[in-house]
Amino acid sequence: MPPVAPWRTGLLLSFLCSCACLEKECVLGMVGRPVSLPCVYPQLLPFVNVSIEWRRGEKVVLKSVWKKDGDVEEWSINRATTPADAALTGDVSLQLPTVGPTEHNTSYSLLVTAGASQSTELCTVCLRTAASFSSPLLQREEAQQGEEAAFLCHSTGGFPEPAVYWLINNTEEPPEGSVRTLATSHPDSRLYNITSYLTANISQDASVSCIVENLIINQNLTSTDYGVKGSPVGSRAFEALWMFSTALCVVVGALVLAGVLYQIHLDRKKNQYPEQRPNRGYKRRRPDEEEAEEMKPEGKETDL
After folding, report:
1. Left, alpha or beta for 177 (phi > 0: left; psi -120 to 50: alpha)?
2. d(Cα 229, Cα 57) in Å, to the nearest integer?
3. pLDDT tens readout for residues 150-191
4. CB-based contact 33:98 (threshold 8 Å)
């Protein structure tokens, strides 16, 4: 068995050298989320006493040693790992639990060492990072007569720095020199906040749009101010609806008022002319009147 080991090691190294010429692959990682940097080579399975190292630049991020007895020793920084069954599948991808803006455009390399031989670079993966921006907040400051209108567009929490565009009536670009954009990076998170200003002579009924574009993730966020008057069709419809509602309120109010006045008229008439019962030829005496009649003394006859 011992004479076979150098031959197998040489075969492994020659194979790895041929694979090292592969084109670099890039992976996109979202800020604050896990990401996997792929590297799969099943040809590593027959070999033992092989160690692998994932490096970021010159710094070792993870090191794993495959021993003869099948055990695998692994250590890492920042909780980076490889799949638990890497020695059985040849999947030695680097799994990072989270990524940040500082790792944007960073290269990670996998180096393989067989026995006492020199290390050979097997995989190189570039990591790009990105974060979504918030929906733009667009505000319009109404201009006085003869003054230019001012617009403010604000978006936060994205990466990398985006491109900001303005459109007037969905098609027209603003005049040259009318846009001023300020991008600031938070010192801790390194995420960007964007504030863009548009100052131009724009009519009040014109629509103005602010577009924040993150090219890496193909994200386009748009916020539009449709102006004071809005579209002619919508304006006419709103005016017609308002007139109809007003007329309906007037009619209902008039009907209610007429009903109240009529009821007052009926009440006055009832008080002025009390209800009379029909006379059927006799008048019924009440019990109290009959009793009073009986109690009257009878008149005495007077002798003449």
Report:
1. left
2. 58
3. 999 999 999 999 999 999 999 999 999 999 999 999 998 899
4. yes
